[in-house]
Each structure stands twice: as structure tokens, then as C-alpha cells.
């Protein structure tokens, strides 16, 4: 049986930035565990490292930064989640 991943996306500027989590990682996030994952994505041809920090500020929070700038400050429930 194939395990499906969970894609978590948030709006950073005018673009969506996404990260894929395993079912185990997503379950951990849902129980309030801190999880930090990075993904490299491009904006206007330049590579940026986007850091997704789940439950870092408080339980249920999601912070996405890129190159030391804040991209998204909010709650996990504000993100778009898809099973892929």
C-alpha cells in the first residue's frame, strides 16, 4: 500500500509555498509536536530556502521564513492541506 503525503501550502507574497510531509510527520504536528522542515523554491529565478516551523511559537502555530525574512506568520489551520 502506497503511503500518501500531505502537502501543506501557505501564501508568501503572491505565491503559494509548499512542503510535503509524511503521514507520521503530519500526525506529530497535529498532536502539537515541534517540526521544522526546509524546502528550496524559486522566485524570479533566484533560489530561496523556505523554512516551515510547525508549533514553534505555540501549539497550532505555523511560521514560514525565507533567507531570514518572515513569509507567513499564522496558524496551521490557515494553511491549505492536501493529501497527495
How would you describe this structure to a colleague?
With 84 residues, the protein is mainly β. The protein has one domain (6-83). The chain contains one helix and seven strands; from the N terminus they run E-E-H-E-E-E-E-E. The protein has one helix at residues 23-30, and strands at 6-12, 15-21, 35-43, 46-54, 61-66, 69-75, 80-83. Strands 3-4-5-6 form a four-stranded antiparallel beta sheet. A three-stranded antiparallel beta sheet has the order 2-1-7. Strand 3 (35-43) and strand 4 (46-54) form a beta hairpin. The protein is globular. The relative contact order is 0.27.
Using only C-alpha atoms, the radius of gyration works out to 13 Å
**What is the count of β-strands?**
7
Number of domains: 1
Largest sheet: 4 strands, antiparallel
Strand order of the largest sheet: 3-4-5-6
List keywords for this structure.
mainly beta; 3-stranded antiparallel sheet; 84 residues; 7 strands; 4-stranded antiparallel sheet; 1 helix
